[in-house]
Design a protein that fits this description.
The protein is built from four helices and four strands, in the order H-H-H-E-H-E-E-E. It has 176 residues and is of the alpha+beta class.
Length: 176
């Protein structure tokens, strides 16, 4: 009988309180991991959209740099005598057919879809700001602004998306 009594005294386990505290600690830790995962997904999505917008701006920059200087400079239709100079804004349409027609109307020339950057349909809005003879004569400043729209995972302030502009500024001249 002494040996049975000895076994009961040595049998120790976890009390219900210890188990409950362990569960609470585990749940708090898992909630933190879930919150980190949600934020990581949002940041990853944002980075992907920023990369797409940046690549779009770079594609248009390279394309414009390969066009004749006089045609790029002619995109600026604002009064050359006005001070301070306001750049001419050219909003790029979202579809290729309209874009080709706009380029023809703007005097850039006639292009086929194969001659344009593969930049249509990436979910970005693109506009060009062109200022001819700026900052010096025979130099044209072009700013390409690509606005990317990023969906929000957490819809806090009744907004389902946010828009962020990415700007790329460069100069072209007839002396290449």
């Amino acid at each position: 009988m002494d040996s049975m009594m000895l076994l009961k005294d040595n049998e120790t386990g976890f009390s219900i309180m210890e188990v409950m505290i362990a569960i609470v600690v585990l749940v708090v830790g898992l909630l933190g991991v879930a919150a980190m995962q949600t934020k990581a997904m949002q940041c990853n999505m944002s980075a992907g959209r920023y990369t797409a917008g940046s690549a779009l701006g770079e594609a248009w920059m390279e394309w414009l740099m390969n066009q004749p200087y006089d045609k790029v400079a002619a995109l600026d239709v604002n009064n050359l005598g006005s001070v301070p100079r306001e750049p001419t804004e050219r909003q790029l349409p979202a579809d290729t057919a309209t874009l080709i027609q706009e380029f023809h109307d703007w005097g850039l020339g006639t292009f086929s879809a194969a001659q344009l950057p593969n930049a249509i349909g990436r979910g970005c809005n693109t506009r060009w700001l062109i200022t001819a003879n700026s900052p010096v004569e025979n130099t044209t400043t072009v700013e390409i602004e690509t606005t990317v729209t990023i969906a929000r995972l957490e819809k806090t302030d009744n907004q389902s998306a946010m828009s962020k502009p990415l700007a790329l500024r460069f100069m072209v001249s007839p002396h290449r």
